[in-house]
Specification:
about 280 residues; Glucose Permease (Domain IIA); 2 domains; two-stranded parallel ribbon; 5 helices
Length: about 280
């Protein structure tokens, strides 16, 4: 039986085959017509479109949103929100049908040592990239949204420079992003946590700061417990938190589950919201 996992492996293999051909063709002639060398690319794109449009979310469509605590405190702004469209990121891959990205505003950095920082805006040319430390989200504490058991934890990937200029964003889209897809889901989400919330629901915290995780796989956590810090690892343009719920622990096969944050709801694109600390959280 051809499963979704098989389709993911096929997709990566086809892309890899295409790039291997491309590299080899610069040194020796390929033993088949030039037009044939494009077939893996065409097939990879077709499989990718199929994965992106996969309507497995229908299984979860009748499921009401799962209410959980916000994973942050302070003022944040939402992007790519499921309140505006689903799939929110244009794809059902990695269980992110109902995913959301949130960026901290200046006062959200509750424990900054150098004071508040305004979030740098997108630039057309210069500066091409900025340090992660220039963004208020970098290092912001992240909290457990519910009582849960951690099933996966990874924080060994580096935090890179921002990609919030046109040249850097194009590089991410055309080159770095493709390389990360070939490397697998873990290179897309970067440093990440996957807690099991029970009742067939798993949360994903993505793009975390390297070395900031305070838990590991197998740990039991309580709502409001500090888990990690916001970072800029993986397929990320600037420090932010990517959060979503899904129906299993495997990013390649899980389907998205809708969520709502207690006291906040689901903020719309570019909506700034205030997340109030819960009773188990330290004051900002």
């Amino acid at each position: 039986m051809f499963t979704r996992k098989s389709a993911v492996v096929l997709h990566r293999t086809l892309w890899l085959l295409f790039f291997v051909q491309l590299i080899v063709s610069f040194t020796v002639g390929l033993p088949y017509p030039y037009a044939v060398s494009w077939l893996p690319l065409i097939a990879a794109m077709a499989v990718g479109i199929g994965l992106a449009r996969h309507t497995g979310k229908q299984v979860e469509a009748a499921r009401p949103p799962v209410e959980v605590d916000p994973p942050v405190i302070g003022r944040w702004t939402a992007l790519n929100s499921p309140a505006d469209r689903t799939p929110s990121h244009g794809t059902h891959q990695y269980g992110q049908t109902y995913a959301i990205d949130i960026l901290a505003e200046a006062e959200a950095e509750a424990e900054a040592e150098d004071g508040e920082r305004s979030r740098p805006s997108f630039t057309w040319l210069w500066p091409v990239a900025r340090r992660s430390e220039d963004f208020p989200a970098f290092g912001a504490p992240l909290f457990a949204v519910a009582d849960a058991t951690v099933v996966h934890a990874e924080d060994g990937q580096r935090d890179h420079l921002s990609r919030n200029s046109l040249p850097a964003a194009l590089c991410l889209l055309l080159f770095e992003g493709i390389a990360r897809v070939l490397a697998g889901a873990r290179r897309i989400v970067g440093n990440h946590l996957i807690p099991d919330l029970g009742d067939g629901t798993h949360a994903v915290y993505a793009h975390l700061r390297r070395g900031s995780l305070t838990v590991r796989a197998g740990d039991r956590v309580t709502a409001g417990q500090k888990l990690a810090r916001c970072g800029n690892s993986g397929n990320s343009t600037e420090p932010h938190l990517h959060f979503h719920l899904m129906n299993g622990p495997d990013l390649d096969t899980a389907r998205g589950v809708p969520f709502t944050w207690r006291g906040v709801g689901v903020p719309r694109n570019k909506e700034t919201f205030e997340a109030i600390p819960g009773p188990a959280r330290p004051a900002a």
